[in-house]
Amino acid sequence: MPKRILLIGPTGQVGWELLCCVQSYGQVFAVGRNPTEQPSQAYLDLADPDSIRSVIQEVKPDIILNAAAYTAVDKAETDTQQAEIINAVAPGILAEEAKALNSLLVHYSTDYVFDGLQQHAYQETDTVNPCSVYGKTKLAGEQAIQAVGGNYLILRTAWVYGMRGSNFLLTIRRLAQEREQLKIVSDQIGTPTWSRMIAEATVQILAQLNSPLSQVDTESIAGIYHLTCTGKASWYEFARAIVAQLDKQPEVLPITTAEYPTPAKRPAFSLLSNNKLATTFGLTLPNWEYALELCLAQITTAYH
Ligand SMILES: NC(=O)c1ccc[n+]([C@@H]2O[C@H](COP(=O)([O-])OP(=O)(O)OC[C@H]3O[C@@H](n4cnc5c(N)ncnc54)[C@H](OP(=O)(O)O)[C@@H]3O)[C@@H](O)[C@H]2O)c1
After folding, report:
1. In this structure, which topology does domain 3-166+193-229+271-287 adopt according to CATH?
2. pLDDT, tens digit, for every residue of 96-142?
3. Is 47 in the pocket of ligand 1 (CB under 6 A)?
């Protein structure tokens, strides 16, 4: 029997790539958050617990992929209640429903659960201390899933970009057309991660867990895993790498976080160690610069 897979957030950066990658793996039920004109098509709003429960009970998925979240980091500082419902409360409901069906919940979280004061890559076991509403709500979502238990994977990723949606890569490409000079923050360090790499790694994990050859017991590997590309960069270095590939290349200048104040505080250092992912699943994502090259090549092919 093919697996029944419920994909929440198929319009997002990671969700869209999952929709493309996971098709050969089972029967995919992709649900957006808005009612469509086709009454037969289910929709799921993470801010509406009833819609979460009724869709899951109707679809009866073997696997729930939750790629949806409240991701507007700065807006969350004032839209706190909505961020809490979607990022903190909804994951617990997903976990309860997944547990009732004995299905696997795959949920994504963020490097923003850390305060960024550490000087070396964060392990899954390192102390969390988010410094923004977004980070706090995402952490609460992780904790809600862990409190319910069952079969779950929480995949913490970082600095996500891709070919669609709102992200740093597409913003820099647009600004490069409009401006002669870009001033970019150089004192925040992390790892840019292409959404496709996240989706592909997720599908590889699913394949391993469900392979007839697999010795892995899903319940015993439940937990948090860091999942980013390798290497590190500042936003300034990331911007330079993007601009270097463009026909029109504006000057890129480094500035400090203090010179570019934002409503939400970001961790100054949020490198994630991916060792647990490598030792558990044998997966290592490529270096961020190589992944960026691949993504830019895709954009060139797709849009020219
Ligand atoms: N972006 C990053 O840099 C980053 C970094 C670390 C971790 N993450 C995590 O990675 C995951 C995927 O992020 P992403 O960048 O792919 O997100 P994204 O591109 O911002 O997409 C968010 C998705 O969530 C959906 N959504 C928002 N509110 C919803 C609701 N109430 N009910 C149902 N769906 C809702 C959106 O639907 P609409 O299209 O209808 O709005 C969209 O499909 C998230 O868990 C995020 O926290 C992201």
Report:
1. Rossmann fold (3.40.50)
2. 999 999 999 999 999 999 999 999 999 999 999 999 999 999 999 99
3. yes
